[in-house]
Each structure stands twice: as C-alpha cells, then as structure tokens.
Amino acid sequence: MPTVATYGPYRVFFYSADGAEPMHVHVERDDKIAKFWLDPARLARSGGFSRKELRRIEALLRQHEAALIGAWNEHFGG
User: Fold this and answer.
1) Contact at 8 Å (CB) between 62 and 40?
2) Neighbour tally for 12: CB within 10 Å
3) Whether the Cβ atoms of residue 27 and residue 36 lie closer than 8 Å to each other
C-alpha cells in the first residue's frame, strides 16, 4: 500500500493491485476510509467520514490532483 501523500490527518494511498481499475486513491484517517476517483477527483465510496469531511477531502485531492495522477502513472506505468 504505497502512501502517495499525507495531508494533515489524511493518508492518501493506493493498493499495488489497483492498476487494472481507473485512476483512484484511498484516503484514511483513524478507522475511516474512502475511495476517490481521479480526473476529476470525486467520491467513489466512503466508510465513516461525514459529508462535510468528504467535501474537505475532495477539495484537497482536487488541489493536488496533478501530483496524485503523476504518482499513479509512475507506479502503474500509465
């Protein structure tokens, strides 16, 4: 599970086996986790985050989307 970035309390990562799916990242904090598609960043599913926090996370991912896409392409060779 390569960690791509840490933004405040959020760890952004993907699983090494995720390369067959469209670009996305997983975000976790404590016991909460969410999956966001990239290009554009949007919620795929969530477990435990409030709607307000999901909006905050989505804004962070959009702000750093180019770097996240670059990390995806570097890892998966896209």
Assistant:
1) yes
2) 22
3) yes
Instruction: Specify the pairing of strand 10-13 against strand 3-7.
Output: antiparallel
Q: pTM for this structure? A: 0.93
Peptide bond into 22 cis (omega under 30): no
Residue type at position 39: D
42-70 tens-digit pLDDT? 999 999 999 999 999 999 999 999 999 99
Q: How far is CA 2 from CA 27, 32, 35, 51, in A?
A: 12, 18, 15, 26
The distance in angstroms from the start CA to the end CA of the chain is: 18
3-state helix, strand, coil in the chain (%, to 5): 40, 35, 25
